[in-house]
Design brief:
This protein is mainly α. The chain contains 4 helices and no strands. The radius of gyration is 12 Å and the shape is globular. The protein starts with a helix and ends in an 8-residue tail after the last helix.
Amino acid sequence: MRCAIRRVFLEVWDPIGISDDPNAQDEYDGYIGRIFELLAPGGNDEEIVDYLSCATNEHMGLSASREHLPPVVKALRQIPIPNVK
């Protein structure tokens, strides 16, 4: 699951453009845990957009539009989520 989220971050989201840098493949790993929580039952797409927008604009200091995030959410939603009890 963690690898699948990382792959989406690198292939679809990648706000700082590091997907081709083999030394930076773990750059977005700090965001995986919260995304996993938001993908679990009860999380909604708007919360994912809010989180990624905050990560991009506030934590990374970039200026990114929320309009670019729906494809990221769609790709994340394609990841099978285990039923955690």
